[in-house]
Amino acid sequence: MTEHEGRVLTIEISRPKQLNALNSQVLHEIHAALDWAHSDPAIGAVVIRGSGDRAFSAGADLDEIRGLAVDESQAFIHAGHRTMSAIADSTVPVIAEVDGYALGGGFELMLACHVVIASDRSTFGLPEARIGCIPGFGGTQRLALSAGKPAAMLMMLGGERIDADRAWQMGLLSVPHSRLRSRQQRLAGSPS
Questions:
Q1: Which CATH superfamily is domain 2-188 in?
Q2: pLDDT, mean of residues 94-121
Q3: For 40-54, b where at least 16 C-beta lie within 10 A, e where not — what string?
Q4: Catalytic one of 5, 29, 97, 128
């Protein structure tokens, strides 16, 4: 779901029952919204957030992935890479508003954003090793660049989750803030 107010385009991942898991449709919609932001000079910032009160995004939709053939899995991973690269390479600033879980592909989505604001109740991690796979959307490289190789390896190989304080200490958050929405609005330049 997208909403345009003032100079801010908000992308809300609206799958709260699935903890805002990323499926093919969500990846496509995020990419399409970024295309819109780039083509409309009235948009000065993009905010990505999850709906509900439990998760920014708990990662890739495992129910969708389980049923995919090899070529379909590769297409899904390519769509994730394409979307994350579009965020990272965006000329319009992209702000992640994290409240709750940011795990797996959701954590990779957060890492692709230019600015990350997180509530103090947020949890971050790459649990893929625990289910026998690896992060597939470029998060291995982005995490190492942001937090350094030792911390990244610990998170990736052990599937360790961290809280907002630890994420702040590792340099993964731009702003830790308990009043998430008001802080995001000031950064994005929207009326509060």
A1: 2-enoyl-CoA Hydratase; Chain A, domain 1 (3.90.226.10)
A2: 96
A3: eeebbbbbbbbebee
A4: 128
